[in-house]
């Protein structure tokens, strides 16, 4: 999946690529700030905790010194989520998961 996402980003504008990379860097920065390790080296539980907080910053109020919605990580999480889910569901595997038969752009199950 990472190679497909790389291929999708390769044809995007420089600004779109920079935005995606900025969001990845933000996640690693938060990971270092909270756990003293890069995101990839966190335990699955720590990864889930960090991403859950980024997705729902109001749920772990002890982490957020600012008002809910003011946490910059939420926007970065949304950016990554949009890119990754968009790439997945437009990939051959994602199209199949959505019920599409054949190549992308093919016929969906139940449609005629």
**Largest pleated sheet:** 2 strands, antiparallel
Roughly what is the average pLDDT, rounded to an integer?
A: 82
Count up the domains: 1
* Strand neighbour order, sheet with most strands: 1-2
Number of helices: 5
Structural class: mainly alpha
Task: Give a description of the structure.
It is built from 5 helices and 2 strands. The protein has a two-stranded antiparallel ribbon with strand order 1-2. It starts with a helix and ends with a strand. The chain has 112 residues and is mainly α. It has one domain (2-108). The chain is globular, with a radius of gyration of 17 Å. 10% of the residues are buried. Helix 2 (14-35) packs across helix 4 (72-90).
Question: What attributes characterize this protein structure?
Answer:
112 residues, 5 helices, mainly alpha
